[in-house]
Amino acid sequence: MCYDFDKMKGSGRKLYKKMWGGTEFCSKDFITNKNWTGEESDASFWINTPNASRLFADIIPVLGSDLADKFGLKNIELFKEKLSEACSGSGQEALKITTMHSSSLCALLFFYNVCDKNKLELELGDAENKKTYIFEKSYFEFQNVVIKGRQPSNMDVVLLGYEKDNVSQSVVLFLESKFSEYYKNPKSHLDIASSYLENNYGGAVYKKLAPKYKIDTENSPKNNFRLIAADATYMEGIKQMISHYIGVRNLLDRKVVSKRNCVGHENVVGAVDKRAKVFLGSIIFADLFSSSKDKEIYYENYAEKHKELAKVLNEVTRDLGVDNKLMVLEEPLTYAEVFNRGNGSSFVVDEKVKKYYFGKEEKVVVDSVEK
After folding, report:
1. Distance (Å, rounded) from C-alpha 31 to C-alpha 250?
2. Whole-number CA gyration radius for the chain
3. Roughly what angle, to the nearest 10 degrees, separates helices 351-358 and 103-111?
4. For labelling alongside 203, which of 121, 166, 273, 350 has CA 20 to 30 A away?
5. Among the three residues 101, 134, 160, which one is the final residue of a domain in this structure?
6. Is 27 in the same domain as 86?
7. Digit-coded pLDDT (tens) for 168-211
8. Domain range for residue 31?
9. pTM (2 decimals)?
10. Which residues make Cβ contacts (< 8 Å) with residue 250, sequence separation at least 6?
11. Is residue 133 in some structural domain?
12. 106 lies in a domain?
């Protein structure tokens, strides 16, 4: 028995039909329309984890076993360890990570198995100076302080490795993962706390974004400013990447250190202290659309905004004369390019994971995404 995604409400209907309609992943054995509280939803579905759903304490080991079973994961103990990391941040990921379209789940399933026996090879840098790097450690929900007294930056994935042609040169890659956020939440403006504008790095970035964006301090709520774009885009993603930049800058400057001792914090700080190259970027699931028009409106629009922002962030780094090896990647990585279309890497992804995200051959034709 399968769920009928045609009965879903909102933009999720066409997303779910395109990704999982008519496959084994729409079966009532694999997914459920009930969330962790037992309430039914007509807008989202969750991976069916029958053992974990009945637990509210010490849920991670059982949830890890359930998810490993559903996706046929081979390295189960490592997955449980990484799941615990992914659910340890301030974003309540344990309550959301089983959602079918969860970006955290997507990042976890692809990156959990980065290790010395399964190394991930990536080509990173700007258009004029790209090099190949080998990654052999992954961490999840890594926290950096952005503004004192406010929520920290939670990086979805942090990878540690080294330069392929210079193994003594270590590298740290901070990645923000996006699945469907960029097409489900486009806006033309966003209200942001004034403390971000008052921050040394934040103020420099937001002011430099003009004329692409307008800063309005008069028509926003108290203690906020309004960031206004020329057209609708994923504004939360723009703000989030700026916050990640401030957080990474604070880590590199060693002026502010997160109070929570994140898993991997010592290793990341150790690499930074040894003059590691540091990259900040995004990895996006870009294969949500059958319609080229929709891909242009949503993904390509956000990818272009991301590129413009990355240029500004790198300019701010140069303008402030900061002495480190930080580079913000202009072009977002995509899951398909890294994991499905071949990049010269021998990295192994669990087969059912690849099938879940890339395996459907017959695609539902979609003219546009309903809002």
Report:
1. 41
2. 20
3. 140
4. 273
5. 101
6. yes
7. 999 999 999 999 988 777 889 999 999 999 999 999 999 999 87
8. 5-101
9. 0.91
10. 144, 145, 146, 256
11. yes
12. no
